[in-house]
Amino acid sequence: xxxxxxxxxxxxxxxxxxxxxxxxxLDPWDGRGSKTRNPFAWIREALSSSEQDxxxxxGVDSAVYFVFxxxxxGIFMLSGxxxxxxxxxxxxxxxxxxxxxxxxxxxxxxxxxxxxxxxKEQSPRLWTYVIACYWVSLVSYILLWKAYNHVSDxxxxxxxxxxxxxxxxxxxxxxxxxSSNGCSVKEQVNDYFKTIYPxxxxxxxxxxxxxxxxxxxxxxxDFRKKFSQAESMYHDSKSHVKPEGVRQTLRTxxxxxxxxxxDSMAYYNDKIEELTPKLEAAQKSTVIEKQQGAAVVFxxxxxxAAAAAQSAHAQMIDTWxxxxxxxxxxILWTNLHKSYYERVIRQxxxxxxxxxxxxxxxxxxxxxxxxxxxxxxxxxxxxxxxILEHNAIRTVLGAYLPQLALMVFTALLPKFLLFLSKxxxxxxxxxxxxxxxxxxxxxxxxxxxxGGTIGGTLFDSLKDIEKxxxxxxDRLARSLPGNASFFVTFVAxxxxxGYGLELSRIVPLIIxxxxxxxxxxxxxxxxxxxxxxxxxxxxxxxxxxxxxxITLCYSVIAPLILPFGAIxxxxxxxxxxxxxxxxLVPKYESYGKMWPHMHVRIxxxxxxxxxxxxxxxxxxxxxxxxxxxxxxxxxxxFAFVCRKKxxxxxxxxxxxxxxEHEWKDMPNMETIYKSFxxxxxxxxxxxxxxxxxxx
Amino acid sequence: xxxxxxxxxxxxxxxxxxxxxxxxxLDPWDGRGSKTRNPFAWIREALSSSEQDxxxxxGVDSAVYFVFxxxxxGIFMLSGxxxxxxxxxxxxxxxxxxxxxxxxxxxxxxxxxxxxxxxKEQSPRLWTYVIACYWVSLVSYILLWKAYNHVSDxxxxxxxxxxxxxxxxxxxxxxxxxSSNGCSVKEQVNDYFKTIYPxxxxxxxxxxxxxxxxxxxxxxxDFRKKFSQAESMYHDSKSHVKPEGVRQTLRTxxxxxxxxxxDSMAYYNDKIEELTPKLEAAQKSTVIEKQQGAAVVFxxxxxxAAAAAQSAHAQMIDTWxxxxxxxxxxILWTNLHKSYYERVIRQxxxxxxxxxxxxxxxxxxxxxxxxxxxxxxxxxxxxxxxILEHNAIRTVLGAYLPQLALMVFTALLPKFLLFLSKxxxxxxxxxxxxxxxxxxxxxxxxxxxxGGTIGGTLFDSLKDIEKxxxxxxDRLARSLPGNASFFVTFVAxxxxxGYGLELSRIVPLIIxxxxxxxxxxxxxxxxxxxxxxxxxxxxxxxxxxxxxxITLCYSVIAPLILPFGAIxxxxxxxxxxxxxxxxLVPKYESYGKMWPHMHVRIxxxxxxxxxxxxxxxxxxxxxxxxxxxxxxxxxxxFAFVCRKKxxxxxxxxxxxxxxEHEWKDMPNMETIYKSFxxxxxxxxxxxxxxxxxxx
Lengths: 695, 695
What we know:
- Chain A is mostly helical.
- Chain A is built from 30 helices and 6 strands.
- Chain A has a 4-stranded antiparallel sheet, sandwiched between helices. In chain A, strands 3-4 form a two-stranded antiparallel sheet.
- The first copy, chain A, starts with a helix and ends with a helix.
C-alpha cells in the first residue's frame, strides 16, 4: 500500500494507475496536480464514490460485484458483532477437564481455546451456539434477499432504453436447418423471419467461416502496424538525428537476417497495397460461399427482439434456436455454427473432463512431484548430475520443484477451464467466463477446503481408521476446530499478499516500463502497453467465494475468523473500487447475469456450514442437535423461492422494462447492423454494400 | 357385443348409440336403413376410418389417444411375435430338478411351467431372456419415437391457422399487481399491454367475481326452462286433450305443495321479467366493482399472442404472469384470480395430500372393513340386531361390506383427485384433468401393481422374513412369476367386462329410457338425456397405463401375457374408435398436450420392467446379469432426449406453425372477444356495450 501511495503520484506511471480515466478522456487526478495530492486520497475517493459512478464508469457487472462484496461484508459484520463478544467469552470460561489448559504452546492453540472445541460434551452452553447458527443463517437470508432485489433493479435500470444498446435490437439464430429448395442461408433466414415478423424484421447477418479472411486481415493489420512504426521512427529521426530523416531498412529473407535490403516504409506500403484487393476478394467469396447455419437477425423493435428470443420458433427444439444476442464484441463467432446436438454432447464431455480434473488432479501433480525428487531426477536425467552436485542448487530444487509443479498447475487451470467452457459451444465471452468461474469454484472448494480439511485428517489417521472404521466421521469432525487456525491464517495471508499486489500493480508497472523502453514505438503501442484487463471474474469470484465458504463454515466454531473475513471483503471492496474507478476496463457487459450464479454459490456455502454444524453438534453429544435440521431445509426453500422469483429476469429481458422511457426516435438500424459485422469482414473503403446486399 | 349388435339397430336407441353423428347433423346409419344393416358393420367402419376422420369428428386429443393405443398394441404385437414362439418352448423343455413337473394342479400352474420361473438357476438358456429384454426395449424406443414425432405433427397441423381458433388470439394474464395510482384493473391492463404491443393489442376482458351474477343467471335460466316446458305441455295438450289446451298450474309455496294456485306460464313469465333487469344491474355492478387481478387479453395477431405467452413481461415472476389462453369453454374462471404464491402453496399442499392418500388409503378402508364385520356391527349398532338375526342378510353383509367400502372408494377417488387438481389453481379443465390422471396413475400403479405384488407376498410370508430378513428381496422376486398368472387373468377380465359394458352402453341406455319416460318434456330435455360425455381420460388413461405396466413387466418373465395385452389394446382400439366416431362428444381440445404425460409414463413402465428383470436375473444367479444394467440407462437417456427435442412445442405453440397458411382475412375480433365472456355476463339483448366499454 505504501508503494502504491508513492508510485501512483509519479506522472510517468499514470498509464498504469489511471488507465480507465485516461480512456474516458478524464484527467487522472481530477484537476489537481500530483504534488498537492494526498497519498491516501484514493481511500477517500473510493469511499465517497457512489454505485452510479461505478455503473457509469465500469458497467453493471462491476456494480454487481460490489453488491456481492457488500453482502459478504454485511454477513460477516452482522454475524461478528453478535458472535465474537458472546461466543468467545463463553468458550474461554468453560472448564473442560478433558483439555489441558496449562500448556498452550503457541497462538494457534490459544485460538483453539476460544473456539467451540473448548466446550465440554453435552455442555448447556452449546445452546448459545445453536442460536448463533440461526443468527448467521437469518442474517444471510435477509442480506441475500435484499441483494437479489437490488441487483434485479440494477439490471432493470440498465436494460431500460435510456441509451442505445445495439444488442437489444438483435437476436442470435442458431441451428438453421439445411435449405430444402437450394436457396442460400441468407435467403432462407430472411424468408423465415419476414413471414413471422412482417413489420419489425429488418435484416439478417449470416455467420460465415472467416478463417481465410481473418488470416489475410491479420497479415494486413500487421503490416499496417509495422508501417506506422516505421513512419514514426522516421519522423523521430528527423528531429533527433538529421533533418531529412533516416529511413529504416530491412531484409526480406528469413527473420530479416538474409535477403535483399529494402526500404521498410516502401516495402510495407507495397505489401498493404498488394493485400487490400486480395482481402476484398476473399471477403466477397466468404460472404457468398461460406455461409454457416447461424445468423444474427435484426429487428426494428426492442420488444419484438426480446419476445423472439424467448419464444419457440420451430416445432422441434433442435432447429431455429433463437436467443438474445450478446454484445458484438463478446460474440464467440466460431461457436455459433455448432449444431444443437454437438453442443449438448460437447457440454457433457466437458463436464466429465472437469469432474476428472477435480477428482484426480492430484495424480499428475503427485507424479511430477515424485519424478522431480532429487534421486529420481538423477536417475532419469543423468546429464543433470554435474549441476546437482552443487549443494545450493540441490536444496532449492528439492524444496521447490513440487511446489513449482503445483503453482504452474494452479495458474494454468483457470485458463484451461475457460478454454473448456468455450469448447462447449457457448456463444458469448461473458457466458463462457461464468461457466468457467463455476467450474473453478467447485474445484477450489472441493480441493482446498474439503480436500484440505478432510483429506489431511484422513492421511494423518489412516491407521486409526483401519482399526475403527466407524470413528471416521467423529475423527473428521473433531479435526474441524484444529483446521480453523490454519484457515484463519489462510484468510489473513490472502488479503495481505493478494490485495497488496493488486493495488500496487507492481507486475503491470514493471512490464509497462520494460515495454515502453524496448518495444513501444508509436502512440498506439504505448496505449497497448498500459491497457489493463478487466476485473478478471474468472479467478476473482471463485477465490472470494472460497474465502466466503471458509469463513462461513467456521463462523460459529471459531468466531474469531469473522473479523478476518470482514477485513478481507472490506479491503477487497476498497481496492476493487479503486481499480474499477481508475484502472480496469471491462471487456464486456452482461447486465448482472453473473449474480444468480454467485447467489446460488453463497447459498451452497451456507448449506455446507449448516451441515457441518449439524455433524459437529452431534459429536458434542448435544441432545438438541436436531434443532439444526430445519436450517438446511430453510436454505433449500430459500434458494428455491429466490430462483422462482428472480431468475427468469436474468435469463431474458422482461418486456415491460424495455418499453419504459421508450426512445421515440427510431435508431439508425444501419449502424446497429454494421456494429455486428466481424472486423475481418469490414469493408476497407466506405460502407460495404456487398455484405448487405449479397444473398 | 351381441347385445350391442341387436340394440344399436333399434331406431329408438339412436340417441344412445349415435349421439355424436346426430349432433354433427349426420345421418346415424350413413343413409342405410336399420334393417339392411349388418349387425357387425361397426367393426368394418371402425377399421376403415382414418385418423383424419377421428380428428375432424372428435379432435386431436382423441387422435392422440389412438396413437397411444396403437403404440401399446405395436409394442406388444412386435414383442409377442418374437417372444411367445421362442421363450415359451425354451421354458417348457427345460428340465428343472427343483420343480416337480408331475403334479400341475390347474391352469395357473401350467402357466408357471411356460414362464421363466421354470428355468434352472444359472441356466445358459437365460441368454435368450437377456436378448428378449433388449428386444422389448428396442421395440418400445422405436415405436415411442415414431409416436412422438407423429403426435408432434398432428399438433402442428391442428395449430395451423386453417380455421379460426379463438383462443389463438388471446392470452391469459394473471397476478396483476394492485394498481398504484387508483385506476381500475381494466385501465391498468389496457395501459400495460398497449404500451408493450402498441400495434397488435386489441382489448382486454378482466376476470370478475361472478358469484352473485351467476346465481341470478342460474335462477333465470331455470325459470326459462320451466317456462318452455310448460309451453310445450300446453301445446301438446292442444292436440291431445282439448283444442284450446290445458294450462298448467302450480302453487307458489313450499315445494309447490302449499300457497296460491297460479298459472304456470304466466308465473314463470313474470319471474323472468322480474329477474332480467335485476341480472342486468348485477352484471353492471360486477363488471365495474368486482374486477379481480386476472384478465384475458386479445391481440389482433396469432404470432404476437403466442410470443407474449412465452415471454417474461415483468421483472419479477410473481406479477403479470402471461400464458396461453385455453378454449373459453374450459377456462376455470374461479381459479384465475389466485395469486402466484397461493398457487404454489396450494400445489404443494395437494401433492402432500395425494401422497398421504397413496400411502395410507388402506387405513380408512381397513378401518371401515374392520368396523363393518358382523360382531362389530352388533356391538356398535345394537338396534340392527333383529335384522342381523336373519342368516341370509348376515352372509351378504359379511361378504360384501368390505368390498363395498373398497368399491365406493375406488369410484370416488378419480373425482376427488380432479377436485384436488382444480384446487391447485390450474386455469383450464384439460390441464386439471391431465394433472388428476397423473395422480391416479401413480395411485393405481403403486397400489394395484406394486402393492398387489409385493404387499401380498409380504403378508403371506411375514414370519419367514422375521427369521431371515436378508431373504426378503429373494422372496419378493421369487413370487413374481406366481403373480404373473394372477395378472394374466386380471388383464383378461378387464377387457371382457370393461369393454363389453362400454360398447353396449347398457347403463346410459337404461338411464336414457327412464328419463325419456318420466322426466323429458321438451326437445332440449331429450337431447340432454342422451348427450354423452367425453372419452373420460381421467380414468381411462390410468387404467390403460396400468394394463400396459403389468404387461410390460411380465412380458419376458411370462410371455403368454403379451397376447392378452395385445388383445386388450386391440379391442380397446376398436371399441374406442366406435365410441369416438359415433358416441362421444369431447368436452375440450388441448391439441395433444396429454401426449408428453403418456410418453413419460410409458417410459416409467419400461424402466420398472427393466429394473424388475435386473433383480430377477440376479435371483436366477445368472453370471451376465450386469448386461441388463445399460437398459435402464438407455431408457433415462431416451426420456431425456425426447423431452429436450419435443417437449417445448407441447408447452407452447411454435411461431413458425402459426404463420403457415396464414389467413389473409382479418378475423372478426369482436366475435372472438364475445366468445370469452362467461355466460352469466352475456348481455341479454344485443351486444352488451357495457362490458366492452366499462373500465
